[in-house]
Amino acid sequence: MSIKQLGFIGLGLIGGSIVKTTKRIHPDIKMIALSGHESTVKQAYDQGLIENDTNACIEDFADCDYIFLCTPVQQNLEYIEKLKGVMKDSCILTDVGSVKGDIHQAIRNMGLESHFIGGHPMTGSEKTGLSNATAYLLENAYYIITPTTQTDPAVVSEFNEFIGSLGAIPLVLDYDSHDAATAAISHLPHVIAAALVNFVKDSDDPDETMKTIAAGGFKDITRIASSSPVMWEEICMTNKEKILQMLDVYEKQLSDIRSKITDADASGIRNFFQSAKDYRDSLAVAPKGPIKTVFELYCDLIDEAGGIATIATILASNNLSIKNIGIIHNREFEDGVLKIEMYDQPSYERTIVLLRKYHYTVYER
Ligand SMILES: NC(=O)C1=CN([C@@H]2O[C@H](COP(=O)(O)OP(=O)(O)OC[C@H]3O[C@@H](n4cnc5c(N)ncnc54)[C@H](O)[C@@H]3O)[C@@H](O)[C@H]2O)C=CC1
Ligand SMILES: O=C(O)C(=O)Cc1ccc(O)cc1
């Protein structure tokens, strides 16, 4: 399918980032949008991103090839019925919501299964709004895709291709596995971060000693507590069962370490931290299983003529073939960094050792 027009309902951090990325990579694709605040639509128009300068009405979405629902998850559900009578036959409705079970249920209720592919970019931040959206937010992020049983595989493949063209890594999962996995690695951590912040707030003294001395560790683990309360309210309301299951298991973990501390079980305590450290340290290593493995590293480029050529020569003279190389700017390396992709794990590891030997700063991801 050649994509001519995309529609966006919601133009915040995620919707805005997809629009900005699409504009960067596919400048000929036309985009229209409606948003909670009309001023956001005007801003996007002024930035040359979308065609409309005031909120689009639902009927305007009739010519779209894909419509992206990019509002908080419960709001997304409300647009399905409105769009049903408007979408053209070949249109695919998709969403970026953090929970997939509810929207799949709503799609089934509406009889729209052959017209829907769920989506969830595993990237973002605690910030909100179009002003924080970037044309690089999706870069190298897994983008989970949850087709229905009735989505034509060819249509899923085209959608995967489009998502891949934006620099993200499409990964197909069923919606139930998605909701279980995200409850563990995203929803529960947000609950824990907020609980920890509330705990410190309630425990602090009138001089706010805890707040004053809070160091990097506390700030690292609680950054996501600054996320949108509306968004997290809606996620907890729609993934309730799975979040509760994960909370039960997590409470058991807390109670286990509590017992070890009570019993002064030194080796038990050490094992608790060692096992967490080993697993946490392994997160940087390339993923296993069905998840696509990408052997990418990032390297600060010395600001001089021939900087890339020097690195390419070092690698070539050591028989290391580069799969892909280029300067990128993304959310993590805003000032730009050299991204080098290798073909396999051994050459990835040798490249790191070699570049460090030549005093380059190398980041493993
Ligand atoms: N924030 C993050 O890091 C991530 C968020 N998501 C999902 O993306 C979706 C959007 O989140 P963000 O972009 O972060 O939020 P945001 O707060 O930055 O943007 C939300 C957008 O939806 C609009 N909106 C809200 N209610 C609306 C309504 N009833 N009608 C029309 N527009 C409405 C707002 O005006 C705004 O443009 C959510 O479903 C969230 O679960 C997915 C991945 C990461
Ligand atoms: O800020 C972070 O690190 C996040 O975890 C962002 C995030 C929030 C919600 C999602 O569904 C996916 C990613």
Automatic annotation (TrEMBL):
Keyword NAD: yes
Top-level taxon of origin: Bacteria
Domain Prephenate/arogenate dehydrogenase: residue ranges: 4-291
Database matches in PROSITE patterns: PDH_ADH (PS51176)
Keyword Oxidoreductase: yes
Stored Pfam families: PDH_C, PDH_N
One BP annotation, GO: tyrosine biosynthetic process
Catalytic function, reaction form: prephenate + NAD(+) = 3-(4-hydroxyphenyl)pyruvate + CO2 + NADH
Enzyme Commission identifier(s): 1.3.1.12
Record GO terms (molecular function): NAD+ binding; prephenate dehydrogenase (NAD+) activity; prephenate dehydrogenase (NADP+) activity
EC class name: oxidoreductase
Family: Belongs to the prephenate/arogenate dehydrogenase family.
Name used for this protein in its record: Prephenate dehydrogenase
Naturally occurring in which organism (per UniProt): Roseburia zhanii
